[in-house]
Design a protein that fits this description.
Order of helices and strands: EEHEEHHEEHHHHEEHHEEHEH
Shape: globular
Number of helices: 11
CATH architecture of the largest domain: 2-Layer Sandwich
Strand content: 25-35%
CATH topology of the largest domain: Potassium Channel Kv1.1, Chain A
Distance between the termini: 27 Å
Largest sheet: 5 strands, mixed
Strand order of the largest sheet: 8-7-9-10-11
Structural class: alpha+beta
Helix content: 25-40%
Length: about 290
């Protein structure tokens, strides 16, 4: 939440901006290019997702992706058939063994869900994990809502089960407050797990010699500048993507540029200025007379 104070005379006008957490994280769902998890269903269909979001919003996925519990644990037998890892560029990868953590290329964790879980139902579970609320209304078929509730209980998502109960009882007006609380809580969990930590990090910022770890998906969702910098033509496929923030102090100007560095780049100067974007540019000459 952001609060702006506008002073008119002696009476300040307070403008409270609503949190954009749910919409920001919802936008991540369509960013399949950066997905590092693939869910497979009995009928051959699939859904893409992201470890950072799943780990922050689900204790089961946090245990799996952070290595706190073996994927083949018996308690998961009712939701997972198989969990594996695939290399994105296996045909051209120099590694003989494509093992997560050892393969030089990026890859995906592939989770084959239990045959009882359909793509339509799990899509609502994913939407809940990303936004704090499934995309279902009071007019939804009750059998479908009950299916979602059953899967929610298997994944130990008590709040999603409560949301389904409210829908079935006609008390859906209670659900928005649940979503708001969950988004705040998920944000705090994500901060604790990932903020400036190497865990699942895929980008490093070098600021005056200090390395700051980041996660492209979250940065792109929360900042248009970061989305422009880490997406499209300014995107690196290396796992060791490093971004140097360069501060240029010129006559009447301050420029902050973000430059991608290759991990093995020895002569940084030519690369530095050929693969950069400007994040901030202040021209003192043009700003004179403005308060």
């Amino acid at each position: 939440m952001i609060i702006y104070f506008h002073f008119a005379g002696f009476a300040p006008h307070i403008e409270v901006l609503s949190s954009t957490f749910a919409s920001d994280w919802h936008s991540m769902m369509s960013d399949t290019s950066s997905a590092d998890v693939r869910f497979l269903f009995l009928d051959g269909q699939s859904l893409e997702a992201h470890k950072t979001v799943l780990a922050a919003s689900s204790s089961i996925f946090k245990n799996i992706f952070l290595g706190r519990m073996a994927p083949n644990n018996e308690s998961y037998s009712c939701i997972f058939e198989d969990i594996s890892w695939i290399c994105n560029k296996e045909s051209e990868c120099p590694n003989l063994d494509h093992v997560e953590g050892q393969c030089q290329n990026e890859g995906k964790t592939v989770i084959r869900l239990h045959e009882s879980i359909s793509k339509g139902v799990f899509m609502e579970v994913l939407t809940f994990l990303y936004t704090g609320s499934p995309d279902i209304s009071e007019d939804e078929d009750q059998n479908f809502v009950k299916e979602i509730q059953t899967v929610a209980e298997k994944f130990q998502l008590a709040w999603l089960s409560d949301i389904c109960t409210n829908l079935l009882k006609g008390d859906s007006f209670l659900n928005p407050s649940i979503g708001t609380w969950l988004n705040d809580n998920t944000g705090q969990v994500a901060k604790k797990l990932f903020l400036n930590k190497p865990l699942l990090a895929d980008v490093k910022f070098r600021v005056e010699g200090t390395i700051v770890y980041g996660h492209k998906l979250i940065l792109k969702a929360r900042s248009q500048v970061m989305a422009a910098m880490l997406g499209g033509s300014f995107r690196e496929s290396d796992l060791d993507t490093e971004v140097r923030l360069v501060f240029l102090f010129l006559e009447n100007q301050i420029i902050i540029r973000a430059c991608l560095l290759k991990a093995r780049e020895e002569n940084e100067i030519p690369f530095l200025f050929s693969n950069c974007i400007t994040l901030f540019h202040l021209d003192f000459e043009n700003s004179k007379g403005h308060k």
